[in-house]
């Protein structure tokens, strides 16, 4: 087993096998650690210039992961610094949740109910661990949730994560992939915190249970209307203060409350649906926290997950 270090390994110890992902901030390779033949994920980040140093997103990821040792959070093994590049070495997991859901669709199936329940519980545990340490992930989506073949799921990609203090301060709105973005961010709320992650988690669990994204918007306004069509257009009685948010428009269409999309007619238990809907409450102050979620009846009798 590779022990976590900090900038002490040589890149020559790693043999790249294949590219497994590419994003705004770097390229991820599957690589083999030569001394033990163990597979790792090698994330290569280009430095913009000699004077710019390590990108802020990478620094945030490194700092966050050094504080978050948890079985359901991806492990940062090493940081390798070179003149024009920095490499982050992570434990390797064979697939992300999006790919797994897509594979189930192709097979006209879905994630096994007990596995979906286990994944949901593990994610609640990991996110609760982050929030109790005052770290918001801010980019939860199926692509950032990695799974192994033993039924373990782990949160990855902490490049947009932020620590927070009380009193809360204003944060950027350029966070969270559109489909999983909380309505308070979409409507321009200047101060937000842990409930934005809880909203994302609710949308992800809903997707695991139905094989389809709950709110698949293609623009910010379409995203809002997708949410309104399922939860109803928010009003002061359901979300006090919503009409004062920067992007709220009194001329928004008034949609009645609908239902979570379930085109293939998969049976959802009342407890599972309630868990999702408690995470998808408009008012962030009433939205279910991960601490409360861990006690939700959906997980009753599942001691194996505890």
TrEMBL record:
Catalytic reaction equation(s): L-threonyl-[protein] + ATP = O-phospho-L-threonyl-[protein] + ADP + H(+); L-seryl-[protein] + ATP = O-phospho-L-seryl-[protein] + ADP + H(+)
InterPro entries attached to this UniProt entry: CDK, Kinase-like_dom_sf, Prot_kinase_dom, Protein_kinase_ATP_BS, Ser/Thr_kinase_AS
Binding-site list for ATP: 43
Enzyme Commission designation: 2.7.11.22
The keyword Zinc appears for this protein: no
GO cellular component terms attached to this protein's record: nucleus
Gene3D superfamilies for the chain: Phosphorylase Kinase, domain 1, Transferase(Phosphotransferase) domain 1
SUPFAM superfamilies assigned to the protein according to its UniProt record, in alphabetical order: Protein kinase-like (PK-like)
Record flagged with keyword ATP-binding: yes
GO molecular function ontology, one term from the record: cyclin-dependent protein serine/threonine kinase activity
Domain called Protein kinase: residue spans: 14-299
Pfam families in UniProt: Pkinase
Keywords: ATP-binding, Kinase, Nucleotide-binding, Serine/threonine-protein kinase, Transferase
Family: Belongs to the protein kinase superfamily. CMGC Ser/Thr protein kinase family. CDC2/CDKX subfamily.
Protein name as it appears in the record: cyclin-dependent kinase
């Amino acid at each position: 087993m590779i022990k976590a270090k900090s900038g002490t390994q040589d890149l020559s110890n790693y043999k790249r096998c294949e590219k497994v992902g590419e994003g705004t901030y770097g390229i991820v390779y599957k690589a083999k650690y030569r001394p033990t033949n163990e597979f790792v994920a090698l994330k290569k980040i280009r430095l913009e210039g000699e004077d710019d140093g390590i990108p802020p997103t990478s620094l945030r990821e490194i700092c966050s992961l050094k504080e978050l040792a948890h079985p359901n959070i991806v492990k940062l093994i090493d940081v390798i610094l070179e003149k024009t590049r920095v490499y982050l070495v992570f434990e390797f997991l064979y697939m992300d949740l999006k790919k797994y859901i897509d594979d189930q669709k192709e097979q006209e199936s879905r994630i096994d109910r007990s596995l979906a329940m286990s994944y949901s519980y593990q994610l609640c545990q990991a996110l609760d661990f982050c929030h109790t340490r005052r770290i918001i992930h801010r980019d939860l989506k199926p692509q950032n949730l990695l799974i192994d073949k033993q039924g373990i799921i782990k949160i990855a990609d902490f490049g947009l994560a932020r620590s927070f203090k009380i009193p809360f301060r204003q944060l950027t709105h350029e966070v969270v992939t559109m489909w999983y973005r909380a309505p308070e961010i979409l409507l321009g709320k200047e101060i937000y915190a842990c409930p934005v992650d809880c909203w994302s988690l609710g949308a992800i669990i809903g997707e695991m249970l139905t094989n389809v994204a709950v709110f698949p918007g293609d623009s910010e306004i379409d995203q809002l209307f997708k949410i309104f069509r399922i939860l109803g257009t928010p009003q002061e009685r359901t979300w006090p203060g919503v009409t004062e948010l920067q992007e709220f428009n009194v001329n928004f269409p008034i949609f009645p409350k609908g239902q979570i999309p379930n085109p293939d007619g998969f049976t959802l238990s009342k407890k599972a649906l309630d868990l999702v809907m408690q995470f998808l409450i408009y008012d962030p102050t009433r939205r279910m926290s991960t601490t409360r979620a861990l006690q939700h009846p959906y997980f009753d009798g599942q001691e194996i997950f505890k």
